[in-house]
Amino acid sequence: MTKKKVIIIGAGPGGLTSGMILAHRGFDVTIVEKQNRVGGRNAELKVGDFSFDTGPTFLHQKFTLDEVFAEAGAKPEDYMDLVLLDPMTRLTWGDLSMETTCDRALMEANVEKAFPGHGEGYRRFMADHAVKLAAIYPCLQRPYHELKSFLSTTLMKAIPYVATGKSVVDVLENYFADDRLKLAFTFQAKYLGMSPWRCPALFSILSYIEYRYGIYHVQGGLCKISEGMAKLFQKNGGTLRLSTGVKELKFSGTKCTGVELDNGEVLDCDDIIMNADYAHAVTNLLNGHSKPAAQLEKKKFSCSTFMLYLGLDKIYQDEPHHHIIFADNYRHNVEDIQSEKIVSDDMSVYVRNSSITDPYVAPPGQSGLYILVPTINTRHGFDWETYKQEYRDKVIARIEAKTGMKDLRQHIIAERILTPQDWRDQGDIFMGATFNLAHTLDQMLYLRPHNRMEGYENLFLVGGGTHPGSGLPTIYESGRISSNLLCDRHNIAYDRVDLAPAFLSTAG
Q1: What are the C-alpha distances in Å from 101 to residues 184, 209, 400?
Q2: Residue whose C-alpha is closest to residue 273's, from 464, 37, 29
């Protein structure tokens, strides 16, 4: 029997997940990637002798990674060195700081020390969210390309948590009186590029997952996950073609027949999985079927990020691996970002100082700082090219003022800046919205672009722009969901690995 041919456009986390699973299931899979490296927003970024992650800097919900590797016949540990971080993150509000941890007793003690009287709220939050996660999580493992999906018993159990007009902040009002402590359980909305005052209440599970199961670093950087996936994909018989851009898809009616590459070569196939940025792809690659950019601009998009990648001639050993410095007026900062027009000088700053954990990302005695500032996307045309050096100086000044790195600028020996315009123009990310379509109730589940793209027989989507959404674990899940739908189309049997029940049964 001739193997079915699958072409995957883009070697980001979702495309690689689908590739390694489908190759393991016996498909003839080719991944074509425009860049000269795998990973997309999860790729390695080199600045001189320093190695950085382009985007994600830690992994939560590791059991999802375990699952997709198992479905491809391997374990993550065969391809990377994962380190559970404890403490996880230092959170700083003005002169007050708190370390977070997945050690329940220690986390309660840390909360009580920083915010006396709030330990009881933490215990209630964790107990209530164990129940909430058990109800919601199965819904994130299912496709929603058909309306009958809403009749599932799993979704019925989750409806009380999903069908509500409350926000993540509204949820936290039930547990904590101090606004600063609420931020310790709501800033995770930024993983979706959203304001916690607008992010749907169901996403309060993000902080629970983090504080219950912990977060992981990968030695050498999170980019090693995608590199490991690429190795497994090729071991399973897949073909990886880097530096291979796609000009457009080929169609016969509603069926995709192949892709035309930038060099004019045409690759025929039975199915296509698209891992390009969703809005960029549907406005540029669909060959007569593309949607006008103005139509996509009507949708709600996430914020963007201003990035600094700094190589230093020293290691700040006393600084944490992860540090979040909240804006002095966090809500006002978030409102500026949501306006999509105002760049805040009172900004929140995330700093990763991974060299205290990882010896592989910088030369001996030196270190790399990854700095991320959430900011506006490019919808209204802010001129970042003119402003980026001035903003860079403001960000560094804030880090020097709020951390122990008082002499930071004196130790910078290598540097790279990425602005929202760079995300848009260099990364082919629509509006520079690094977290893709916003995760509002009218852009979730069936109302989000489907894993099998509506109107086509054999075009599938993976990545943050489809169900279940942004963030590495959910992107991995999108890759698995689309792979399963593709197998269903060809009546190919498969065994599904589901480790979640064991984890959820120990929640609380």
Answers
A1: 12, 12, 25
A2: 29
310: tokens are 């700094």
Q: What is the mean pLDDT of the chain?
A: 92
Torsion, CA 173, CA 120, CA 334, CA 308, rounded to 10: -170
Q: Rounded to 10 degrees, what is the CA torsion of 225, 228, 230, 233?
A: -120
pLDDT digits (tens, 9 = 90+) for 125-170: 999 999 888 887 776 666 756 655 555 666 556 555 555 678 999 9
Residue-wise pLDDT tens digits, 164-212: 678 999 999 999 999 999 999 998 877 777 888 988 888 898 999 999 9
- Whether the bond between 56 and the residue before it is cis, its omega within 30 degrees of 0, is no
- Give the length of the chain: 508
* Residues 183 and 330 sit within 8 Å (Cβ to Cβ): yes
pLDDT tens, position by position, 461-499: 999 999 898 899 999 999 999 999 999 999 999 998 888
Q: How far is the C-alpha of 362 from the C-alpha of 507, rounded, in Å?
A: 38
C-alpha 68/C-alpha 70 separation (Å) is: 5
With beta carbons less than 8 A apart as the criterion, state whether 171 and 193 touch. Answer: no
Sheet holding 246-252: strands in order across?
246-252, 255-261, 266-268
Gap between the terminal Cα atoms of the chain: 49
Question: pTM to 2 decimals?
Answer: 0.94
Show the tokens assigned to 297.
């601009």
Strands 5-9 and 59-60, by their bridges, are unpaired
Kind plus residue range of the DSSP H or E element containing 251: strand 246-252
**Please, are residues 290 and 449 in contact by the beta-carbon 8 Å criterion?**
no
The Cβ-side half-sphere exposure at 449, using a 13 Å CA radius, reads 27
Q: What is the DSSP letter of 415?
A: E
140's tokens = 């994130």
Would strands 50-53 and 44-47 be described as parallel, antiparallel, or unpaired?
A: antiparallel
Looking at residue 473, its pLDDT comes to: 94
Average pLDDT of span 17-34: 98
